[in-house]
Amino acid sequence: MHGKTALLALLLASALAAAPAAAADAKAAPAPALSAQAVPAQAAAGQGAQAGLLDQGLEAFGEERYREALDAFGRILSDPKAGSLRPEAAYWSVLAYLAAGDRAAAEKALDAFVKDYPQSPRVPDLLYQRGRLLYSKGDFEASLKAFSAFVEAAPGHELLPSALYWGGESLFALGRLDEAERVFAAVVEKYPSSVKVEASSYRLELIKLEFRERELLKLLTWSHEESLRVVEDFRRRERSYEQAIAAYQRQAADAKRGLPADSGKTAAEQKARADELAARLAAAEGELAAARAALEAAKAGKPAEAKAPAPPAVLPSSAAQLSAEALAAKARALDLLAYYLENLPREEAK
Fold first, then answer.
1. pLDDT value of residue 129
2. 281 Cβ partners below 8 Å, 6+ apart?
3. Which of 98, 309, 339, 342 has a CA between 20 and 30 Å from the CA of residue 193?
C-alpha cells in the first residue's frame, strides 16, 4: 500500500512551489458518517455522566443539531475528570464545527487536538480534514501540504483515494493541469472501487477540454499576431511606394518646369544647324552639276552652256577628281542631315 501512496507524495511535493491560490469553492468539508464503532468501547461502557454527555452529543450530531452537539462536547472538555473521553469529545468538536460551517473555530480546535493528542489514532483523519478545510478556504497551496502530511502519517488509510482526489483538485485550482491530470488518472487506475472515481473521470475530461481550449487560444493568438505582421509589412511597403511615387512626381515636375527654355534653345540650334547643312548641301549639289557640265563639255570638245559661269579649263582627269570630291561632300552632308533630322524630334519630345 505504501508504494501506491508514493505517487501522491511525489506529485504533491512537486506542487509546493506553485503560484498563489485563486478563488475556490466555499463549501465546508463534510464530516465523516457516524458508525457503531465511532465511540471507543470504554466510553460506551460508562464513565458516568460524561459518557452520557458524549452519547447525547453524538446523537445531536447525527441529527445535524450541531450547536447542541458542541455544547455537549464542550461540557466534557471542561471536565478534568472526563479522562479518555476528552480526546473523543475534542475530535467530534472539530467535526461539528466543520459541519456547522464555523471554519475559524474548526481550524483552532483541529490544531489544538493535533498538539494535545499527537499519538491519537484520530490524527490522520484530522490531517485529512485540515486539507479539506484549507481547500474550502481557497488556500490550495496549504491544502497540498496538508494532504502530503496525511499521506506521510497514514499511507494505508482508507481515505487515501479521497486525499489523492482532493490533492488533484488543489492542483487543478492552481492551474497545474499536467500534474492534476496524473493525480486524477491515478485515482481512476489504482482505486477503481473508490467513490472518487467518477469525479476523477469527470475532471480528466475537463482537463482535456482545457488543453484543447489553450491550444485554440494559442492558435488564435498566433493567427492574430501573424495578421498584424502582414498588415504592418503591407503598410510599410505602401509607405515606400508612396514615397517613391512622390519622388518621381517631384522629379517630373522639376523636369517639366526646366524643359521649355532648354528644349527651345536646343531646337533652335538644331534647326539653324540643319539649315546651314541644307545650304551647304545645295551649294555642293550646284558645284557638282557644274562639274558634270564641264566634264561633258570637255568630252564633247565644246564650251558649256551660258547658264552657269564658265568654269576654268580643266583636264579630263581634273574633272573626274572634282566630281569624286563633290560626291563625297554630298554624302557627308546627307549623313549629317539624317542625323539631325533623327535626333531633333527626340530633343523636342523631352
1. 92
2. 330, 333, 334, 337
3. 98
In percent, how much of the chain has pLDDT > 70? 61
Contacts of 59 (CB under 8 A, 6+ apart): none
Q: What angle do CA 226, 232, 238 make, to 5 degrees?
A: 140
Query: 46 or 98, which is more confident?
Result: 98
Q: What is the CA radius of gyration of the chain?
A: 57
Q: Nearest 5°: CA angle at 162, between 8 and 207?
A: 70
Distances (CA, A) of 235 to 221, 227, 228, 241: 21, 12, 10, 10
Q: What is the pLDDT of residue 27?
A: 36
Q: What stretches of the chain show up as alpha helix (H) in DSSP? A: 2-14, 41-45, 48-62, 66-77, 85-100, 103-116, 123-136, 140-153, 160-173, 177-190, 197-300, 316-349
Q: For residue 176, give the C-alpha cell.
A: 497545474
Rounded Cα–Cα distance for residues 91 and 237 (Å): 76
For cell 477503481, what's the residue?
192
For the chain, percent helix, then strand, then coil, each to nearest 5? 80, 0, 20
* pLDDT at residue 184, rounded to an integer: 93
Cα–Cα distances in angstroms (integers) from residue 57 to residues 48, 69, 217, 276, in the given order: 15, 4, 55, 138
Three-point CA angle 106, 111, 116, nearest 5°: 125
| Number of neighbouring beta carbons within 10 Å of residue 297 | 17
**Considering only CA atoms, which of 190, 131, 188 is closest in space to residue 2?**
190
What pTM does this model have?
0.51
Longest distance between any two alpha carbons in the chain, whole Å: 182
Provide the mean pLDDT of the chain. Answer: 74
pLDDT score of 70: 92
Tell which wins on pLDDT, 273 or 116.
Answer: 116
> Count of CB atoms within 10 A of residue 12's CB?
27
Contacts of 51-55 spanning 24+ positions with Cβ under 8 A: 51/85, 54/85, 54/88, 54/89, 54/92
